[in-house]
């Protein structure tokens, strides 16, 4: 069992940066592929970024490629999402998620993640 707690959300202006953190409980954090998702009002939850066990591989949604950076510190049981050049369309609740099943694959599908945090609100004003 893994518990995930996100933090770092807030209200920023377009062009600003923000760093989200996701702290995980449990001793096997390093065995999980980790992902960030987001959900805007009235929209489906969408994949944002994912990172492999050791952090050597990352994937991103096209909408954030080049602006967002996912990273992890397995010694601290924490995954991060550095968000730069924020846009109003980035406004959403951001969730981190853990996938304990797949080996060597980072999935973009939300239903394939096993554990979820409660989410943190990010609001970008124009």
Notable characteristics:
single chain; about 130 residues; mainly beta; seven-stranded mixed beta sheet; four-stranded antiparallel beta sheet; 11 strands; about 45% strand
Write the topology of this structure.
Blueprint: E1 4-7, E2 10-13, E3 18-24, E4 33-39, E5 46-51, E6 58-60, E7 68-73, E8 78-83, E9 92-99, E10 115-116, E11 120-125
What's this, in brief?
The chain is mainly beta and 126 residues long. 0% of the residues lie in helices and 47% in strands.
What would you say this structure looks like, in words?
The structure is a single chain. By secondary structure, this protein is an all-beta fold. The chain is about 0% helix and about 45% strand. The protein contains no helices and 11 strands. The chain has strands spanning about 5, 10-15, 20-25, 35-40, 45-50, 60, 70-75, 80-85, 90-100, 115, 120-125. The strands form 2 sheets. Strands 2, 4, 5, 6, 9, 10 and 11 form a 7-stranded mixed β-sheet that branches. A 4-stranded antiparallel β-sheet has the order 1-3-8-7, with no helix packed on it.
């Amino acid at each position: 069992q893994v518990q995930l707690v996100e933090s770092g959300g807030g209200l920023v202006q377009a062009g600003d940066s923000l760093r989200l953190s996701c702290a995980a409980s449990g001793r096997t954090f390093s065995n999980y592929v980790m992902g960030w998702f987001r959900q805007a009002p009235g929209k489906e939850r969408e994949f944002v970024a994912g990172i492999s066990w050791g952090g050597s591989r990352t994937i991103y949604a096209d909408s954030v490629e080049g602006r967002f950076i996912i990273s992890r510190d397995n010694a601290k049981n924490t995954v991060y999402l550095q968000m730069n050049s924020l846009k109003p369309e980035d406004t959403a609740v951001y969730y981190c998620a853990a996938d304990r099943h797949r080996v060597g694959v980072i999935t973009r599908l939300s239903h394939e993640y096993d554990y979820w945090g409660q989410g943190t609100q990010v609001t970008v004003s124009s």
